[in-house]
Design a protein that fits this description.
Shape: globular
Number of strands: 11
Strand order of the largest sheet: 5-6-7-10-11
Number of helices: 17
CATH topology of the largest domain: Rossmann fold
Helix content: 40-55%
CATH class of the largest domain: Alpha Beta
Strand content: 5-15%
CATH superfamily of the largest domain: NAD(P)-binding Rossmann-like Domain
Structural class: alpha/beta
Order of helices and strands: HEHEEEHEHEHEEEEHEHHHHHHHHHHH
CATH architecture of the largest domain: 3-Layer(aba) Sandwich
Largest sheet: 5 strands, mixed
Number of domains: 2
Oligomer: single chain
Length: about 350
């Protein structure tokens, strides 16, 4: 279990409840300190209790020696060093990216290639299986367990996909990694509000609810336009993906029945803001927040690399990425571009040959 943020702790709790032994790893020993002796306290959709990992360590080799599958539950800006560690660890394990963000499995494949190591069986989930936050005492509060996720595999990744089905309670829809990467809801959910709410974020240090007060019909209209670009790119690769709101209803973060009527953006804003799982989540406190560090460089940027392969202009995504890069220039990581994904110079047929057997 690689990661000890909210997603990693929620995963550790669910897997322990499922009878699995968990080795909990994070590169920062201070992050692990609360869990070494006291275990992981969890509340909410998983129930309430304390999960005790079999091992808590900041030594990657020690964690991998105890594992049968490496579940990577980390922000995407930590993927590169972790993938490098996996590639050079000397133990080849199936790898499950939970989530893969956008392009995670392709990125892993390229890092292993760069290290001269054979790629492992790899699968990626379209989004994290939980909505979760860690409180000031280190407990993880889980407000939603996903009902339905997409599980994309690269050729040869069936062992990782099988592990995902055993480990998680969510229903997993199989497919290639283009379907899972382009079903990343945070790609559409976060950048419009992060850009259009930037003044409010800066003035209040995020003292408002991102998915309610920050999601006005105007912001939702931009999200709808970005979502249309995402679906157009997916269609070029043969995937007729649902809309953002439809995908969120499958996950369980938007509640049925969906609102009807209203002007442009109003139904989308109403549907998302009414979801109990996200309703109380605060806005980013600064431009160093992961909504900027992750969802621009590791959401919009790889999406645009795929859009270029598909021949789609995606002007809304390009504008948001440019503006986000200006807002968060001091903390924005290098973008996950076509070279980092290993798809530079690909056309549609060449990319499909990579991701499908």
């Amino acid at each position: 279990m690689l990661g000890a943020g909210a997603g990693g702790l929620a995963t550790a709790a669910e897997l322990t409840l499922g009878g699995h032994e968990v080795a909990l790893w994070h590169p920062n020993p201070a992050r692990l300190a609360p869990y070494r002796e006291s275990g992981v306290t969890y509340r909410g959709a998983l129930g309430e209790g304390v999960a005790t990992p079999a091992l808590v360590t900041d030594a990657l080799g020690e964690a991998l020696a105890r594992c049968e599958v490496a579940v990577v539950t980390l922000p995407a800006f930590l993927h590169d060093p972790v993938f490098t560690g996996l590639a050079t660890a000397g133990r080849r394990l199936p790898v499950l990216l939970s989530p893969g963000h956008t392009g995670g499995a392709l990125h892993l494949r390229q890092v292993f290639c760069r290290a001269g190591a054979p790629a492992p069986a790899v699968a990626e989930l379209s989004t994290l299986p939980y909505v979760a936050r860690v409180d000031e005492n280190g407990a993880v509060n889980v407000t939603c367990c996903a009902r339905h996720l997409r599980c994309g595999v690269l050729p040869g990744g069936d062992e990782a996909a099988t592990a995902a089905a055993v480990l998680f309670s969510s229903e997993l829809a199989p497919g290639d990694v283009l379907a899972s990467s382009l079903a990343n809801v945070n790609l559409v959910l976060h950048p419009p509000g992060a850009v259009l709410g930037a003044a409010w974020i800066e003035a209040t240090a995020g003292a408002f609810t991102f998915y309610v007060e920050g999601l006005t019909p105007g912001v939702a209209r931009v999200a709808e336009a970005l979502d249309a670009e995402r679906r157009a790119v997916a269609l070029r690769f043969g995937h007729a993906l649902p809309t953002l709101v439809e995908e969120m209803s499958l996950i369980g973060t938007v509640e049925l029945p969906l609102p009807e009527g209203g002007g442009a953006g109003e139904a989308t804003a109403a549907a998302i803001s009414s979801g109990a799982a996200n309703r109380s989540i605060a806005a980013p406190g600064s431009f160093a927040h992961r909504y900027y560090r992750e969802d621009f460089s590791f959401g919009l940027a790889p999406f645009l690399a795929l859009a270029d392969v598909a021949g789609e202009a995606a002007p809304i995504a390009r504008s948001l990425l440019a503006l986000g890069g200006v807002l968060a220039a001091a903390t924005m990581p290098a973008p996950l571009d076509a070279a980092a994904l290993g798809i530079e110079g690909c056309d549609v047929d060449a990319l499909l040959a990579v991701v499908r057997p």
